[in-house]
Design goal:
Layout: E1 8-17, E2 21-31, E3 36-40, H1 47-54, E4 63-72, E5 75-76, H2 82-87, E6 90-93, H3 105-111, H4 121-131, H5 133-137, H6 148-160, E7 166-170, H7 178-195, E8 198-203, H8 206-212, E9 215-220, E10 223-229, H9 230-235, H10 237-242, H11 248-261
Parallel strand pairs: 3-8, 3-9, 6-7, 7-8
Antiparallel strand pairs: 1-2, 1-4, 4-5, 9-10
Helix pairs in contact: 3-6
Length: about 270
């Protein structure tokens, strides 16, 4: 396998559903090895469809890639199924926290190792518990009884059991309290730094995504309309107004209010 170039490359793909609805319109992006790339946009922009195209999950919804190509680690992967992708080190965590509710937390995690034939599953389980100590505390509990944030941790942990080099995370913050969102994103960054894991993150919450990502793509109507380093996108006035809920006048007003509240001895 090639060690040059991006780990994931999506080149001008078009995705059509039922041969009628064109959802992705020449979308192109790259995910470097060891990077955290954020795919940003409103609901319906095409983020989830992009994830499903990479994971080859479109057929069940009568969708297909009609143009373009997807490469992972230098090889084209458009036609590979989920087990093939897992063996190559690519895992997907879909939105909605699809834990197996009647199985214990530990059994949920072990499901993630279904494609492995080595003896290191126990070591991987220990690694998951190291990053998600809450799961260790609840390892014998039915996953369906976990909180929303704990279920999100469980499905991410399940993906880690496949020993991936890259994880696709689809809307991980959906429905979670802000403190839990920060905890999960912080663990993602730890995995990136400590384990060298690569992430492609589809997220509506642009503010938190751009804090943790290294690079970002803004998608509208199935096309990339803006891209750049995460810090640059977070500082862009148009993106701040449209996606972060901030504008220059509001920020100026906040600064003025803060100055008025400042004690005189600090002036």
């Amino acid at each position: 396998m090639s060690e040059q170039g991006p780990l994931l490359s999506i080149a001008g793909i078009e995705v059509m559903y039922a041969r009628l609805a064109l959802v992705l319109r020449g979308l192109t992006l790259r995910v470097p090895r060891g990077g955290i790339v954020a795919l940003l946009g409103a609901n319906g922009a095409g983020k989830t469809t992009t994830m499903k195209a990479v994971a080859n999950l479109l057929r069940s919804e009568r969708g297909e890639v009609t143009r373009g190509a997807i490469h992972y680690d230098g090889a084209r992967i458009d036609g590979l199924d989920a087990s093939d992708l897992a063996r190559r080190g690519l895992s997907l965590v879909m939105e909605g926290r699809h834990a197996f509710g009647t199985l214990s937390v530990e059994d949920n995690l072990k499901v993630g190792a279904f494609s492995r034939r080595d003896r290191g599953v126990g070591d991987s389980l220990d690694m998951v518990y190291r990053y998600f100590p809450r799961l260790k505390d609840r390892r014998h509990q039915a996953a369906g009884l976990l909180s929303g944030g704990e279920q999100q941790m469980c499905v991410i942990g399940r993906a880690l059991m496949a020993r991936p080099r890259m994880i696709l995370l689809d809307e991980p913050s959906m429905g979670l309290a802000p403190l839990l969102v920060e905890e999960i994103f912080s663990i993602m960054r730890q995995l990136n730094v400590d384990e060298g894991m690569t992430f492609l993150l589809a997220e509506q919450n642009a503010a938190v995504a751009l804090r943790y990502a290294t690079y970002g793509y803004l998608v509208e109507s199935g096309r990339v309309v803006r891209e750049g380093p995460a810090a640059a996108l977070a500082a862009d006035p148009e993106i701040r107004a449209s996606y972060l809920g901030l504008d220059a006048s509001a920020e100026a007003g906040s600064a003025t209010l803060a100055a008025r509240r400042r004690p005189r001895w600090l002036s």
